[in-house]
What does this fold into?
Amino acid sequence: MEYGRKLAEFRLDRGMTQEELASTIGVSPEDILSWESCSDYPSKFHLTAVATALRVKISSIIDKDIDAMMAAIHVAETRETLCMATLTALALVCTAGLVATSQLSPDSVPAAANVVKALLLAIFLVLVASRRSKTSLRAKAYREALEAADGSHSAFVLKRKAGKSPKLVTLQFVLGVVLAFLLITLLVIIEPGSRLPWVML
It folds into this structure.
């Protein structure tokens, strides 16, 4: 990634030290150092503040990194889609298993329901952890940087430039709908007297 070198170059062109730039935008000198060494990425707010302080466009800071940023975003989106697909497949298996159990052995439903709850909780925690991983957080920062750089462009251009693959977005939507339906079905089986599934609709 080149953004760190570009930040340092623009800062030196303005005759500013890391401490002066940090003071101007309200961060610590260590933050500036981590951005210039590419060990961390500034948030959209801080990237905008840096560009304003250095009197440059955000696009001039990130222009050499756009392809790498989009690739990183695509990897994170693909990983998230795979997690959703896994969760959906597990929910489908659990739903089919509970339906079969309720028909064949109604007395076993509470025990099977507890197993299903544990499995769904585990995969849900994996999904949450994947969204909080360093890769996902970095991809989010890249997406925000691309959007900030092209703030005047249309929503279509923003989505394309921010690495949003239409196929992945569509697949995530479909998986979300299927998953919601399966979870409602599971709730009906696990908590037959509850009104929660109908409230969720």
